[in-house]
Amino acid sequence: MHRRLAFLCLRSGPNPQPDPNSNPEPQLPRKPPSPSPSRPKPSPARSAKKPPPDSPNPNTLLSDPSLDNPDLGPFLLKLARDTIASGEGPVKALDYAIRASNSFERVAIEKSEEPSLDLVMSLHVLGAIYCSLGRFEEAVPVLERAINVPDVSKGMDHALAGFSGYMQLGDTYSMLGQVDKSIECYEKGLQIQIESLGEIDPRVGETCRYLAEAHVQAMNFDKAEELCKKTLEIHKAHSEPASIEEAADRRLMAIICEAKGDYESALEHLVLASMAMIANGQDNEVAAIDVSIGNIYMSLCRFDEAVFSYQKALTVFKSSKGDHHPSVASVFVRLADLYHRTGKLRESKSYCENALRIYAKPVPGTTAEEIAGGLTEISAIFESVDEPEEALKLLQKAMKLLEDKPGQQSTIAGIEARMGVMLYIVGRYEEARNSFESAVTKLRSSGERKSAFFGVVLNQMGLACVQLFKIDEACELFEEARRILEKECGPCHQDTIGVYSNLAATYDAMGRVEDAIEILEHVLKLREEKLGIANPDFEDEKSRLAELLKEAGRARNKKAKSLENLIDPNSRRTKKEPTKKWGFRI
Question: Where is this region: Disordered (predicted)?
Answer without folding.
Answer: 1-67, 560-586
